[in-house]
Design goal:
Helices cover about 50% and strands about 15% of the residues. By secondary structure, it is an alpha+beta fold. Among the domains are: about 100 residues, no CATH class; about 200 residues, no CATH class. It is globular, with a radius of gyration of 34 Å. One of its GO terms (molecular function) is transmembrane transporter activity.
């Protein structure tokens, strides 16, 4: 019997080639889109899930109450980790972790590498398997390093890396190490990564800061003992904070800072390792908000649901042409179960064809999808047991939803009615209308959200930042060279060249350059009996001129003044903490060394030196050499920008023939800061377009159904003098009402969702009603055009032929 069902189903599908093709294509597109979105979300949610001890691994972070509000951060003083292991028996293992260099050398060859320093516990805590060399204590010596397999191949080729001598560029010189072990390559879904890792004691500044509880630099990861709990650790941490952070607590109390909700001025907390990818507090994490992958899953579900609704409508529409077949089967003894099985079997075949086609489409689109949205996805992820089970479950649900209900609805129709060919879908069409409204609510919601996200990103791109980003070239300097000398040599080489307006440098880039680096430093100092905190930025001469900053008082750093090495240039926010713009000039601040205070020589207008997700903060610029310059900024004249870029590269090549640089304009850097949002915005735009296309396919199917039922009515109206436009308007008005209702439902939902999303940005647009009008207009126009195709065709039919239609 089963074989017979399959044979009949295949014949029916072949007989209705157009209908089958539309069903398969619609579902295949939905399956392909859903697979790509699910793979993207799955990869994001899989970050750090591969660690064997993931349930016990935590990252430490601290909350500090400040006069301006609560501050949360994950960087800590160097001596904290040893004290933590000593005072907390529930801490089984702990490791500090920090980036220390970008260059490693073997013989006369230098390689760019992500060099980190950590405690020996790191490789015991995390699942970074060692595949060669010392397996038990690879970092037992201060001169040992562990490198990844890919880095070993890059440096040594086919040679065995174990016990090979290498050099790492640290604190302005090359230091020697021995490769003690090779680790398996770090998975790309690991938040913590490195090419080379050495003992933490090799960290620059370690000796001078190993007992300093006032300077915070490194991250701290802990593995709790099996009996320990996060709540128990955090409860006991208050005593630890009071014991070791006495000086900071004293200053906070002196400044009159109110305790937080837990009654503490400072509190230690833990975040699970599996959440740091989504946590902006973590220095390693904060890549995206956790809502993004769930939004992708939701959108994938929306698209698949819309396709299922289309399938249902098309299946019910097709039942009109099979009414006599169904009636005859009932007369000849077929029971409802057999009819449902037969009709549902046809649906399963269509869904199976659509799934296979969707997989092929996804496979063909995957390379372009990865390139467009900067993903690293592979269909091999579908082999994951959890994901494979989810796909199979989704397929079963789709077949039940899209094929099961129509089969049940058709099979239960009265036998006499089907024999007469008077099969009706119901006078009220309630279910059909609800499904169509749901389709267009989803489509309108996606359109609204996409338009608002696009407006916000466009606003960020065009917003004045307070500095010149269009005519300034940023040059990231290689770690291994004397960067101060490189800046001076470039200044000498470019000065006086046509098109070069100013040359300066800084320890921190503006925006995010092509080297991917982005960082900041904060320093605290005492001023008139209270603490003053400020972002700390090492710059060089002519920084204000090179970036086009606006001086409000005083002057920029200049080589004409020999005392400027002990000078400071601050922004308005910092000046406000010192009594105002004019009052700040000449103020001496005990930065780093109270015996040799630094003097404020200039105040600039506030500018956005951080991403626009954050408010402008106090900023102090200085010439202190202990923070080396890492970027050169070259201001060029407007006009021939590409020519100026070529000149900069040429001069660098002449000075350093064996070294490559990757310069970029600052406007590129600032755009790169929002690349992640742009990537997801692109995915949402694509999803919105797909949702509209698939919804219109369903709308077209419904219009075919309606026209089939009203053919005779349309013929009569034409005979009585109705115009084509009048008939089209009559047929379309019900659909227009439903689409308008959909927009009205979607608009407040979209407003709430996007208003919450915009809260992440310190600078944001105000949602305007024109967005919802535009979204409604788009949905309405597409719907009317879709319905009009069929209604115009029906209106143009010969009325005599229409009236004679059964």
């Amino acid at each position: 019997m089963f074989r017979n069902y399959i044979k009949i189903a295949w014949r029916n599908l072949r007989k209705s080639k157009l209908l089958t093709g539309v069903n398969v294509l619609g579902l295949a597109i939905a399956f392909a889109a859903c697979i790509l979105l699910v793979l993207t979300a799955w990869r994001e949610l899989s970050f750090d899930q591969f660690h064997t001890n993931k349930g016990r691994l935590q990252e430490l972070y601290i909350t500090v109450q400040r006069p301006e509000g609560e501050e949360s951060r994950s960087n800590f003083p160097i001596p904290l980790t040893p004290a933590l292991k000593q005072d907390f028996p529930e801490v089984k293992a702990a490791s500090r972790f920090i980036a220390i260099s970008g260059s490693i050398r073997y013989h006369d060859k230098t390689f760019q590498a992500d060099v980190k320093s950590a405690d020996a516990d790191l490789l015991k805590m995390f699942s970074f398997p060692l595949i060669k060399g010392e397996m038990h204590q690879p970092l037992n010596s201060l001169s040992n390093v562990v490198i990844t397999a890919n880095m070993a191949k890059k440096i040594f080729g086919a040679e065995d890396a174990i016990n090979k001598p290498v050099e790492i560029y640290l604190e302005g010189e090359w230091k020697s190490f021995i490769v003690s072990a090779v680790a398996k390559d770090i998975p790309d879904n690991s938040t913590i990564s490195f090419d080379v890792v050495c003992r933490f004691e090799n960290t620059p500044g370690y000796v001078s800061q190993k007992d300093d509880w006032g300077a915070s630099s490194n991250e701290v990861f802990v593995q709790l003992a099996d009996h320990a709990t996060v709540a128990g650790f955090e409860r006991r941490s208050g005593t630890f904070v009071n014991k070791y952070f006495t000086a900071i607590l004293r200053d906070l109390k002196r400044d009159g800072v109110a305790p937080g909700k837990d009654g503490q001025l400072m509190s230690l907390h833990l975040m699970p390792i599996t959440t740091i990818h989504f946590n902006s507090i973590s220095s390693s994490g904060g890549a995206i908000s956790k809502t993004y992958p769930y939004l992708l899953l939701l959108i994938g579900g929306f698209i698949l649901f819309i396709a299922c609704v289309n399938f249902m409508n098309l299946t019910i529409a097709a039942a009109f042409s099979r009414s006599r077949e169904i009636g005859m089967r009932k007369i000849l003894g077929a029971v409802k179960t057999q009819l449902v099985t037969q009709l549902w079997g046809e649906a399963v075949l269509i869904c199976l064809l659509a799934l296979v086609t969707g997989l092929v489409i996804a496979y063909l689109l995957l390379p372009g999808y990865n390139a467009l949205f900067s993903n690293k996805l592979s269909l091999a992820l579908l082999k994951s047991p959890g994901l494979l089970a989810g796909v199979l479950l989704g397929f079963v649900l789709v077949t039940l939803l899209s094929g099961g209900y129509p089969a049940w609805a058709i099979a239960k129709i009265n036998t006499l009615k089907v024999l007469k060919g008077s099969l009706q879908a119901g006078k009220s069409n309630g279910l059909r209308n609800v499904l169509m409204v749901t389709q267009f609510v989803i489509s309108s919601l996606l359109i609204c959200c996409t338009l608002i996200a696009w407006q916000q990103l466009d606003y960020l791109r065009k917003m004045p930042l307070g500095y010149n980003r269009d005519q300034v070239i940023s040059i990231p300097l290689p770690y291994e060279m004397d960067t101060e000398q490189a800046l001076q040599r470039m200044r000498n080489s470019l000065s006086g060249q046509t098109g070069i307006a100013a040359i300066s440098g800084a320890a921190i880039n503006m925006g995010r350059g092509r080297d991917g680096a982005s960082q900041s430093s904060i320093i605290a100092m005492d001023y008139k009996g209270h603490s003053v905190r400020s972002n700390w930025l090492r710059v060089d001469y002519d920084y204000v001129k090179a970036l086009g900053l606006t001086l409000l008082a005083g002057r920029d750093f200049s080589q004409a003044y020999g005392t400027d090495s002990s000078g400071l240039v601050i922004n308005e926010k910092m000046a406000a903490q010192l009594g105002g713009v004019q009052a700040a000039l000449g103020v001496q601040l005990p930065v780093l060394d109270s015996a040799h205070p630094l003097t404020v020589i200039g105040v600039v207008k506030d500018f956005n030196f951080k991403p626009l997700k954050e408010d402008i903060a106090p900023l102090t610029m200085n010439l202190v050499k202990s923070w080396p310059v890492q970027y050169i900024f070259v201001k060029v004249a407007p006009g021939d920008l590409q020519g100026s870029m070529a000149l900069v590269k040429k001069q660098w090549k002449q000075l350093y023939p064996g070294s490559d640089i990757d310069p970029s304009f600052l406007d590129e850097n600032t755009d790169r800061q929002y690349r992640r949002e742009q990537r997801y915005s692109g995915i949402f735009i694509s999803a919105a377009i797909l949702a509209i296309i698939i919804s219109c396919m369903g709308l077209f199917a419904i219009s075919v159904l309606v026209m089939t039922r009203r053919t005779r009515e349309i013929g009569v109206r034409k005979v009585l003098g109705a115009s084509v436009i009048g008939i089209v308007a009559l047929v379309s008005k019900d659909f227009v009402k439903l689409v308008l209702l959909s927009v009205m439902i979607a608009a407040p939902i979209a407003w709430y969702v996007m208003d919450q999303w915009l809260q992440d940005y310190a600078y944001r647009i105000h949602i305007n009603i024109t967005v919802f009008v535009a979204a409604g207009g788009i949905a309405l126009l597409v719907a009317v055009l879709t319905v009009s195709i069929q209604s115009v065709r029906a209106a143009l039919m010969n009325p005599i032929k229409s009236i004679r239609t059964e």
